[in-house]
Amino acid sequence: MVDLEKITDQQKNQLTLKLMQILEDWKLDDQDQVALLGLSKSLKPRHLYLYRRGDKFFDFDQSSINRSEMILGIHESLGTTYPTNRAYAAIWLKRPVKKFKHKAPLELMLSGDTGMKRVWYFLDCTQSWHE
Asked: pLDDT value at position 112?
């Protein structure tokens, strides 16, 4: 777990850029990106380009740090699951999965932290050992 008191602005900027790259690789629209990151409702999706370019970084709180860790974990797990075709992650996230009662993983992830954890735990069984 990341200590908010010790994270520097440079680390926040790097994390912001990494998260934006992952969400772009997953081919998510701006509204889904804002929702997945749990960003402030005052942030307009059209302003995400400032974060993509590195002009701004997210104002991280503990909730957004937790969501960031889950997104990074899901991204890593998808890379392990589909090592020869990283682009398939974007497809897999949007297709119904029997284990999720024929809901798309993205749908679960957008429902909140519990849905994000379900997807992450499904992809990486070692995560459920922590809880």
From this structure: 92
